Amino acid sequence: MASILPNIPYIIMAVLAFSLLVIIHELGHFIMCKLNGVKVSEFSLGMGPKLFGIKGKETEYLIKAFPVGGYVKMEGEEENSNDPRSFTNKTPVQKLSIVSAGAIMNLILAVVLFAIVGAAKGYVLPIIGQVVANSPAMHSGLQVGDKITKIDKVNIERWDEFINVVYASKGQSMNIELVRNSKVKEISLKPVKNVKENRYMIGIAASGVEKKLNFGESVGYGFSQTVDTAKQTFGFFGTIFKGQFSGSDVGGPISIMRISTKAAQTGLTTLLYFTALMSVQLGIFNIIPFPALDGGWIFMLLFEIISGKKLDDNKVGTINYIGFMFLMALMVVIVIKDIVSPMKF
């Protein structure tokens, strides 16, 4: 108990950060419901038993026991309704704007949080500060002080951009353009896999030289980080669908809270950065075309818009119910895995 007490402020910060992701996501749905004239009976943060709520003009705002997920309960979402303000009585385009708004808001939040981090800390320049002995970097001739400018003709401005390209290389040879003593040089090398860390490396470390950003540069950094994170997230989901992943790479709410708490202990900017990462991942996870997820709705609504044929509401409800039950079962399995075999970080 004594070891937990000092971490309580950081745990609270982690819970608030995770709650922000859910609030922003559901707020996107809620705002578009209002703009499209859809009646909302409940706006809930969390799942499970109700802790307390505030009743508005037509919407009850709820806080529930488990700070995992949330929802916006729309008129006609789960049953047929003759109310002109029901979700089912809106056009496919209106429905699409409502169901896609949550993921869009998560991506917008990520841009904002990354921009704040960029304004607060700047970013590390791609300048080499250390070359590991007997590494691909050493054998290829890379030196301390080299500034990396391109990889395979792609411009590199930040250290994390360079590292992400190396991680994604899968050991393929790459051409690195760099500046050394005001002269441009080109070097070719092959990253090698670090089995312990399960990632590709070339054996260098950053110098730690940072670039401070103005407002415009911070916003640009926010956009570029969001795009890069989205690409990595799509790549990760791709490995899951192909079965090319380890169970140790997957975690649930417990792992998220543990990592968030560690991030909070490191500092506010680290927590904001991690929250931005999670916001991108949550947004992309929700657009996977699976029943009960926003992506399932998006897929069906795009089918309606393109084909001009309305899907049977009862069949859609049944499919979404089955999908929801599957997701709940999957969540239980992930939580058990979190307890029995937590992620290592």
TrEMBL record:
InterPro entries: PDZ, PDZ_6, Pept_M50_Zn, Peptidase_M50. Keywords: Hydrolase, Membrane, Metal-binding, Metalloprotease, Protease, Transmembrane, Transmembrane helix, Zinc. The keyword Aminoacyl-tRNA synthetase does not apply. Its main location: membrane. Pfam families: PDZ_6 (PF17820), Peptidase_M50 (PF02163). The keyword Hydrolase applies. SMART domains: PDZ. This is Zinc metalloprotease. The gene is rseP.
